[in-house]
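Supplementary Text 2. Reproducibility record for the structural model of the 302-residue chain.

All settings were left at their defaults, and a single model was retained for analysis rather than an ensemble. We include the record here because the model underlies the residue-level annotations in Supplementary Table 4.
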Amino acid sequence: MPGSIHLDNLTKRYGALTAVDGLSLDVAIGETYALLGPNGAGKTTIVEILEGLRTADSGTVEVLGLNPISDRTRLQRRIGVMLQEGGVYQGAKAREVLALFTAYYPGARKADELLELVGLTEQATTLHRRLSGGEKQRLSLAMALVHSPELVFLDEPTAGMDPVARRATWEIIERLQADGSTILLTTHFMDEAERLADRVGIVNHGKLVAEGSPTELIHARGDVSFVSYPNLPVQELTEQIGIDVREVRTGFYVVTTDAPTPVLVAQVTAWLAGHDAMITELRVGAGGLEEVFLALTEENNR
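Retained model, structure tokens:
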């Protein structure tokens, strides 16, 4: 039985720019796979190729055992796509938008059922242009689920939402997971990927630089990280200990090593004390997916 997604040596160029560079990955049926990467890493191109919106220059692309270009009509009946924005008439009411989409698919869910699913029952008669950013996102999610698709593409599903709406949307996605849906998720929220994804693929410069479950990726890092004053002269520390030290974001530093030792930790703290730099946090090993993401993309950029 084929998986939900199969990419082998996928390549896509735009003139001199290689957006996707020999990328291979597989997503199993019923799996939630988070595709992560900085802006410009190639994520959008990959997803658009999977959805049949762009053609690959080379490589193998299979979605639910189909070719997204030659089998596009058949594939569209089986996938759901959640867009970040656009594609909706601003003067339509929320229920009207869903009623229009349900008319495209025989046996589709009812509009009111979908509104209840995404928590928009009270906004059923609200014009689209009057919905908040988070409400528009939830309506977009409902549109993607009209025909109970086997595979759902979620592009930044909680962008523009407040913390309460984010948690509610996570619960909707978790219900989809419990029902056996396959989900390809793109997000800039690392806590979202850490909570929802079975596996994560980190893309940078069009290449897959890391892949695994959130737990595997977090535990694979042996870095020492610390939080202190910004713009410390860490090149001095690098030269002293012979290990690369970087300020990956303001005031957050990473000592890149696979084998941290008590001596290394002592060297770091002694150097900081010698520069009268107060530590507000010191950690051995990655504390979460965000630290892994920042470290991997920084290493790949260098």
